[in-house]
Amino acid sequence: MTIKVLVADDHGAIRAGLMMILGNAEGIEVVGEAADGATAVRQAKALKPDVVLMDVRMPGVDGIAATRELTAEGLCEVLVLTTFDLDEYVHAALRAGAAGFLLKSVEAARLIEAVKLVAAGEGVLAPQVTRKLIAAFAEGTREPSHAPAGLSDLTEREREVLACLGGGLSNAQIGTRLHIGETTVKTHVSRVLTKLDLRSRVQAAILAQENGVTLES
């Protein structure tokens, strides 16, 4: 199955480079491009891509607002790509529902892999971003959120899956850890997101960390 991708970036040269990398990748088709968030949203609604590769800083409607609109309507997955790894952008993008966050310094092979992972329902974070998030939680610099009502509605298995998401495990790793198949894992992840009213597994990971839902040793 071919993964359809829309590339949104306000720099023409960068946009062209990204389109060339992804366009030459097996199993990926670039179906459109956009130079600002408003255009990205319109194009996504018209072209129905599987993944939108979204820049953060763009004129008019920025990437964060565009991501929030796309994910709220469930139109596609959003993979944020930017030159900035500041906490404010990371948290804003992930809370807007982005399925992943990469820096523009990412290598071509990793970018292609990330697009495929996001299209498959996985979450992707650049190593630099992951370290920042872990450090922030470890140091207690993030304000803890109020536990959502749905947290108490999770079954024991769903809570285990949420803990695995908080630990950054992929579907395959969750399956191995809990001794269940990947299809079953996907079902549980979907139920967890629905019960907690979340837009992405990365948001679930943040919620798990903020509320102390951890894997038992």
UniProtKB/TrEMBL annotation:
One record GO biological process: regulation of DNA-templated transcription
SMART domains (UniProt xref): HTH_LUXR (SM00421), REC (SM00448)
SUPFAM superfamilies: C-terminal effector domain of the bipartite response regulators, CheY-like
Coiled-coil region list: none
Domain HTH luxR-type: residue ranges: 147-212
PROSITE patterns for this protein: HTH_LUXR_1, HTH_LUXR_2, RESPONSE_REGULATORY
Pfam families to which the protein is assigned, alphabetical: GerE, Response_reg
Domain of life: Bacteria
Residues modified as 4-aspartylphosphate: 55
GO molecular function term, any single one: DNA binding
Keywords: DNA-binding, Phosphoprotein, Transcription, Transcription regulation
Domain called Response regulatory: residue spans: 4-119
Record's protein name: DNA-binding response regulator
Organism listed in the record: Amycolatopsis regifaucium
